[in-house]
Design brief:
A two-stranded antiparallel sheet has the order 1-2. Helix content is 62%, strand content 12%. α3 runs antiparallel to α6. It is mainly alpha-helical.
């Protein structure tokens, strides 16, 4: 099982050139605001929302964790990871 950790940009790179994002965030915020997650969780996050939704509505860890789908996925993913480590 691959437990590679990846950097998830809370403001997706595809949004960095968009006028709305440039107006509301600095280049440094857009580049550095992110979380480190495993590849499966990273893919799961991107399957749930569009790039613009991620950047506008889920651009902090707190906002992302308030979402019911994400909140319910985390304990399940942790349980799966523990099963595969043995």
């Amino acid at each position: 099982m691959n437990h590679l950790l990846t950097f998830h940009h809370l403001i997706p790179k595809s949004c960095h050139s968009n006028k709305w994002f440039k107006k509301n965030f600095t280049k440094e915020e857009m580049t550095n605001r992110g979380i480190v997650v495993c590849r499966k969780c990273h893919s799961f996050i991107h399957r749930q929302f569009s790039e613009k939704e991620l950047g506008r509505d889920f651009n902090t860890l707190d906002k992302l964790m308030e979402n019911e789908t994400i909140k319910n996925y985390i304990p399940w993913a942790i349980k799966q990871g523990r099963k595969s480590v043995s």
